[in-house]
Specification:
Cytochrome Bc1 Complex, Chain D, domain 2; mainly alpha; disordered C terminus; binds heme C
Length: about 425
C-alpha cells in the first residue's frame, strides 16, 4: 500500500516534468538558436548603479524625490508636476501626441518604466544621468516653467521637505542668508534682459554655486525615486522564465499568436537590431524615418552638443564621481553627420499603455507603427546620403502584423505599486483596501 503510493507519486511527478519538458521543447522549436538567445537576453535585472549620484539607494532621498515628483509647487504657475505628464496610471506618460505643461511643448512624453536602465536621457540624449535630466523640465519655460531659485525657497520653506532634505544632504541656508536670494531666477544667457537672468546675474559666483548644488541635490532625490519605477512581471517575462525552466504554466503565459510575433521580432522582421536586451532597446539613437511635415529635426546632433555643454553632466562639478571610469561614455562621445535626425530607441516594455508613439507622437496605435515598418509608406526622406539604411519594407501579411502587435501587447506590466504613487493617493488607496477588508 505504502509502496504503491510512492510509485504513484513518482509517476505523477514524472508525467508532470516529462510533459513540462516536451511542452518546452515544442515551444523552443518555434525559434532558432539565435532567436532564443536574443529572447533570453530580455530578462530584466536591477539597473546598474549611477556613480554620479551618491544618494540613489537612500530611503529619505527616495521619499523626498517622490514628494517632489508629485509637487506642483515646483512649477511657475503652481499647476504642473512631473506627474502631470508622467502619469503612473497611463504608463508614466500622458496619452497626448505632444506634451502640454505650462505651454504646449514640441515632443511626445516618453514613459518612465525602468527608466534607470538608460545611459542617455531625452529623445535626443541631451542628459547623461537621471538626476541631471530631472533639472531640465523644472526650468523649461513650456514644461514646468519654474526655476532653481524657486526650488531652493520651496525646499527651505516647506517643513517636511526641509527636514528630509536636511537628513540627506545637510542643512539648507538659514533664513537670513536666503533673504539675499531672489524668489525666482535661472540662467537665461541668450536673453540678458529676461527677469530670470537679471535675478541670476545679481548673485555672486559663490551664491550661484550654492544654488546649483541645492538644485542638483533636488534632482538626485527625484532620480532616487525614479529608480524605483521598475517592473518585471509581464506575461512575456513569465514566458521567458518558462523557456528557461520548462514550467508549463509560464510557457502558456502568452498566446500562440504572440509567440509567433516574438519569432518575427527577434528573427526575420529584424526589430531586434535596435530593440534588444532587457529594455527591448539598444538605448542608442537611430533614424527610423518617422513621417514629418516640416524640416529635418536635428535630434541626436543637437543632443550631443547640449550634453557636452551641460554644467550638470557626469563630468561636471555637481557629479558625485567625475572620474574617467564613471564617465567613459561621455568622454568618448563624438558627433558625426549620422547623428542628424536620430532619436533614442524607446523601451518597448509597457508599450501597449503608452500611445501615441514616436518622439513626435506621429502614430496613434501599435498597428500604425507596425504598418510603418511593413511598408515605409510616407516615410520621411533620408536625412542625408549617409543615413542609416537598416530599415527595409518588410511587406508583412495581415497575420504577421497581428502577431507582432500581440507580441508587443505581451510586454504590458501590472499597474505601479502604491509606493510609487503620489503620497496622498497611496494613502487613499490603502484606506480603500482596508475598508474592503
Ligand atoms: C509638460 C510635460 C512634462 C513635465 C511636466 C515633465 N516631463 Fe519629463 N518629459 C516630457 C517630454 C515631452 C519628454 C521628452 C522631451 C525630449 O526628449 O525633448 C520628457 C522626458 C523625460 C525623461 C527622459 C526619459 C527617457 O527615456 O529618455 C525623464 C526621465 C523625465 N522626463 C522625467 C521627468 C521628471 C522627473 C519631471 C519633473 C521634474 C518631468 N519629467 C516633467 C514631458 C514632461
Ligand atoms: C534601426 C533601428 C530600429 C529598428 C530596426 C526597429 N526600430 Fe522600432 N524604434 C526605433 C527608434 C529609434 C524608435 C523611435 C523613433 C522616433 O521616435 O523617431 C522606435 C520606435 C518604435 C516604437 C514606438 C515606441 C514608443 O514608445 O514610441 C515601436 C512600437 C517600435 N519601434 C517597434 C518596432 C518593431 C515592431 C520593429 C520591427 C518591425 C522595429 N521597431 C524596428 C528603432 C528601430
Amino acid at each position: 500500500m505504502k509502496r504503491s503510493r510512492v510509485l504513484l507519486a513518482l509517476a505523477v511527478l514524472c508525467t508532470a516534468s516529462c510533459f513540462g519538458n516536451s511542452a518546452a521543447e515544442e515551444v523552443r522549436a518555434q525559434f532558432t538558436e539565435r532567436e532564443l538567445a536574443r529572447i533570453l537576453r530580455t530578462a530584466l535585472v536591477a539597473p546598474m548603479p549611477d556613480p554620479t549620484n551618491a544618494f540613489e539607494g537612500n530611503a529619505d532621498a527616495i521619499d523626498l524625490g517622490r514628494r517632489l515628483f508629485y509637487d506642483q509647487r515646483l512649477s511657475g504657475n503652481g499647476e504642473v508636476s512631473c506627474a502631470s505628464c508622467h502619469d503612473p496610471a497611463q504608463g508614466w506618460t500622458d496619452g497626448r501626441q505632444k506634451a502640454v505643461g505650462v505651454n504646449e511643448t514640441g515632443a511626445h512624453t516618453p514613459a518612465l518604466t525602468n527608466v534607470a536602465h538608460n545611459r542617455w536621457f531625452f529623445w535626443d540624449g541631451r542628459a547623461d544621468s537621471l538626476w541631471s535630466q530631472a533639472l531640465q523640465p523644472i526650468e523649461h519655460p513650456d514644461e514646468q516653467g519654474g526655476s532653481r531659485l524657486q526650488t531652493l525657497h520651496l525646499l527651505a520653506e516647506d517643513p517636511d521637505l526641509a527636514e528630509l532634505y536636511g537628513r540627506v544632504f545637510g542643512e539648507l541656508p538659514q533664513e537670513e542668508v536666503r533673504e539675499a536670494y531672489p524668489r525666482n531666477g535661472r540662467p537665461v544667457p541668450e536673453e540678458p534682459e529676461h527677469a530670470h537672468q537679471l535675478a541670476w546675474a545679481s548673485l555672486s559666483e559663490q551664491q550661484q554655486q550654492e544654488v546649483n548644488l541645492i538644485f542638483s541635490n533636488a534632482g538626485k532625490a527625484i532620480a532616487a525615486f525614479e529608480r524605483c519605477i521598475t517592473t518585471n512581471s509581464t506575461a512575456f517575462d513569465r514566458f521567458v522564465d518558462g523557456l528557461r525552466t520548462g514550467d508549463a504554466d509560464d510557457l502558456a503565459a502568452i498566446s500562440a499568436e504572440a509567440r509567433s510575433g516574438a519569432a518575427l521580432f527577434f528573427g526575420e522582421a529584424r526589430c531586434h537590431l535596435c530593440h534588444s536586451g532587457q529594455m527591448l532597446s539598444d538605448l542608442e539613437f537611430h533614424d527610423v524615418r518617422v513621417p514629418r511635415s516640416g524640416d529635418v529635426e536635428p535630434g541626436r546632433w543637437d543632443g550631443i552638443a547640449a550634453l557636452v555643454a551641460d554644467p550638470f553632466n557626469g563630468a561636471g562639478v555637481y557629479s558625485d564621481d567625475k572620474s574617467q571610469s564613471a564617465n567613459v561614455e561621455l568622454r568618448h562621445l563624438r558627433r558625426t553627420r549620422h547623428n542628424a535626425g536620430e532619436f533614442k530607441t524607446p523601451s518597448l516594455r509597457d508599450v501597449s499603455r503608452t500611445a501615441p508613439y514616436m518622439h513626435s507622437g506621429a502614430f496613434s496605435t501599435l498597428e500604425e507603427v507596425v504598418e510603418h515598418y511593413s511598408t515605409l509608406e510616407g516615410a520621411a526622406p533620408f536625412t542625408h546620403e549617409d543615413s542609416e539604411r537598416v530599415l527595409i519594407p518588410l511587406n508583412l501579411d495581415q497575420a504577421e502584423k497581428r502577431q507582432l502587435v500581440a507580441f508587443l501587447r505581451s510586454l504590458t506590466a501590472p499597474l505601479p505599486a502604491p509606493s510609487l504613487l503620489a503620497p496622498a493617493a497611496a494613502l487613499k488607496q490603502s484606506v480603500v483596501a482596508n475598508h474592503n477588508l
